[in-house]
Amino acid sequence: MLLSLKIRERNKLATLFIPLVLSSTTLAFMSSPNHTKSKRNLSSLKMASEHTPPKKIVVIGGGIQGASVAYHLVNSLHFPSDGKVTLLESQKLASAASGKGGGFMARSWGDGSVTQILHEMAFDMYEELSSALPLTTYRKLPVLSVSPGKGGLMRPSADVAKSLPKWLDGNVGPIRMMGYGDDTAQVTPQEVVEKFVASSGDKLTVCIGTATGIEMNNDNQVTGVRYSTSSDGSGEQVLECDAVVVSAGPWSCIAEDWFNGIVSLPMEGVKSTSIVWSPPESNEVVDATALFCGEDHRFGTHCKSL
Ligand SMILES: Cc1cc2nc3c(=O)[nH]c(=O)nc-3n(C[C@H](O)[C@H](O)[C@H](O)COP(=O)(O)OP(=O)(O)OC[C@H]3O[C@@H](n4cnc5c(N)ncnc54)[C@H](O)[C@@H]3O)c2cc1C
Fold it and tell me: What is the pTM of this model?
C-alpha cells in the first residue's frame, strides 16, 4: 500500500503529473512572530526568500520534493558559500511515493489553472536535468488511451499502430493517441532523488531520522528540528537550523502540531495499490509506451501502465 497526497479542500490528488520543485505540499519557514491560528496567518508567515538567506536549512522528507528543494537550494546563486542543508528522512531516500511513482510527465496536460505553468516549467526542467545530472532513465515516450473491450483491437489508426507496444494484449477496445512523445516523458523518480543528492556535494548531508518537532525561540524563529532515530520516537536529538522546509509528502500535515497552531495544512494521505513490474533479465527490448486505461467494469479496475 502506498500513500498519495490529497488536498482536503479541493478533494483531489494535488501533485499527480506535476513533478514540482516547490509546491503547496512543500512549505518553508523561518520565522512567524505573534500569530494565532487562522488562514490570514499563513500569508503573514515570513518565507525564507524575504530574509537574508539562511545558512543552515533542514529539509524534512527525502522524496522527490525534498531532494529537489535541497538540490536547488545548494545550487542557488543566493545560497551562502558557507551554507549547509540537511535532508532529514525517516526511512531511506525515495522510500514512499517517490520510490514507486511512474514518473510520467506531460507538458501540456494542465487544466489551465494556476498550476499550468508548473507543468511546463517542470517538464522543461527535467529535460535539462536529464543531461545535467545526467538521468539514465529519462525518456520521451508516446501515450495511448486504452479502453477495455471484448472485441480485440479493431484496425488501429496509423499513429496508434506505430506506437502500439508489443506487450499490450488481452481484451482491449478503442485506442487513441494522447501524446506523441514530444511533450510526454518519463523518468524514474528514485534515480532523480539519488542524483539530486549525489550532485549536491558536501553542502548537503542526509540524516536518517524522523522529525518529531520544531524548536523555536521567543520570537517564534525556527532554531532547530527535533528528530528521533528510534521507532518509538524516544531519545530525541536536535538539528540546529535557521530555516526548515517541510516536504514529507502526506505526512507533512503533522507539522500543524509543530508550529504552535500557526499553520493549517489541509491535506491527508490516500492509500492505493501499485504494481511494479520488472523488465526481463534478457536483453529483450521492451517497447516504451505509456497507457492510460479506462475503467474495466467487469473487475471494477482502473490501470495506468508506464
Ligand atoms: C503508484 C503511484 C504512481 C504515481 N505516478 C506518478 C506519475 O506517473 N507522475 C507523477 O508526476 N506523479 C506520480 N505519482 C505521484 C508522485 O509519485 C508523488 O507526487 C511524489 O513522489 C511525491 O513526492 P514527495 O517528495 O512529496 O513525497 P514522498 O515521496 O511521499 O516523500 C515523503 C518522504 O518524507 C518522509 N517522511 C515522512 N514523515 C517524515 C518525518 N516525520 N521525518 C522525516 N521524514 C519523513 C517519508 O519517509 C518519505 O520518504 C505517483 C504516485 C504513486 C503512489
Answer: 0.85
